[in-house]
Design goal:
Blueprint: E1 2-5, H1 7-23, H2 27-44, E2 50-51, E3 57-60, E4 66-72, E5 76-84
Parallel strand pairs: 1-5
Antiparallel strand pairs: 2-3, 3-4, 4-5
Helix pairs in contact: 1-2
Length: about 100
């Protein structure tokens, strides 16, 4: 199953990695590893996480206050947002997925 990021989600990922690296050397890499672990779980069990809308789900990271907002079908996982769960919870809802 292929994983694809919407451009705003890719930017959020990059910004979070940069932020954590400024907080503590290596913390950004730890964040990225947590995201990659979550992506592996999503690929294995795409329907296992909290449903937000009819087509979107959220997989919460274990160590960081972030969730991956995504849509999945048989061929692809589309990451809509790398969302900080302590900020504006529904800001991503207007993002186009096509």
């Amino acid at each position: 199953m292929r994983v694809r990021f919407l451009e705003p989600a890719r930017q959020e990922l990059d910004e979070a990695i940069s932020y954590y690296n400024t907080e503590l050397a290596g913390l950004g890499e730890a964040f990225l590893l947590e995201v990659l672990s979550a992506l592996a779980r999503i690929r294995q069990y795409p329907k296992a996480w909290h449903s937000l809308t009819e087509n979107t789900r959220r997989c919460q990271l274990k160590r960081f206050p972030y969730g991956l907002i995504y849509e999945a079908d048989e061929a692809e996982v589309l990451i809509i947002a790398v969302a900080n769960l302590h900020r504006r919870p529904s800001y991503w809802r207007n993002r186009r997925t096509s």
